[in-house]
Amino acid sequence: MQTNIETLGKLERRLSMAVPAEEIDREVEQRLRKLSRTVRMDGFRPGKVPLKIVAQQYGPQVRSEVIGDAVQRAFSDVVRERNLRVAGYPRIERKEGGDDKQLAFSATFEIYPEIKLGDLSAVKIQRPVHAVDDADIDRTIDILRKQRVTWEPVARASQTGARGWPSSSAKAGCCPISSPLSPESVPPSRRLFPFTFPPITPERKLPARRRRSR
User: Fold this and answer.
1) Residue 202 falls within a domain, yes or no?
2) Across-strand partners of 189?
3) Average pLDDT of the residues in 98-121
């Protein structure tokens, strides 16, 4: 098999290769014979379909599979022999106007760049160190406690950090609120605020439409 590699850019390469047509025809015939043993067609018993009919029905598909396998195998062999580090999948194209005894293809692909490391023996690396004190631990514990807090109803006035909401069953009343001040510094008369629900308006009936007689 003939192969040739061209350099199109810093990382782009193109591999030209040719697969012998005789090998393709031989592999196609072997696969068709193997397929004729199991293929089912109307009017024939299993395994008794003539090879000519199998080739007419499945020949183009089998040939396409054989060519694809041969090109992929040839590409993999060249990459392994020349130690190419291919990045991604190649773009394979068939070349027209070649020799009838060979099928010519080209594979365009990119390779990984070669990275050369310098001398690191004299380089000094400073490892960052962070000391954890008791204040950091207490701060983290406090954050975890706030993330896992649960709320329970209580029968007392509001305090700092408490949550309050009005009852939907009352028409007028009071609701405890949270205050940034301490409960002792807020007078009892200001720990509650009055609220009133808006009056419920009765449903307005739409006037009945008169039916016009034609």
Assistant:
1) no
2) none
3) 85
> Which of residues 202 and 120 earns the better pLDDT score?
120
The model carries a pTM of 0.50
Q: Please say whether the beta carbons of 62 and 36 come within 8 A.
A: no
Structural domain harbouring 13: 3-111
Check pLDDT > 90 for residue 58.
no
Q: Which residue carries 């000519």 as its tokens? A: 52
- Would residue 87 be called left, alpha or beta, if left means φ above 0 and alpha means ψ between -120 and 50 degrees? beta
SS3 of residue 87 by DSSP: strand
User: Rg of the chain over CA atoms, in angstroms?
Assistant: 42
76-94 residues labelled b (16+ CB within 10 A) or e (exposed) = eebbeeeebebeeebebee
- CB contact set of 54 (below 8 Å; sequence gap of 6+): 32, 35, 36, 39
Residue 180 lies in a domain: no
Residue 182, pLDDT > 60, answer no
Angle of the 21-36 helix axis to the 51-81 helix axis, nearest 10: 130
Confidence at residue 173, expressed as pLDDT on a 0 to 100 scale: 42
The reported pLDDT for the residue numbered 123 is 85
Report the CATH number at residue 100.
3.30.70.1050
- Asked whether residue 184 is assigned to any structural domain, the reply reads no
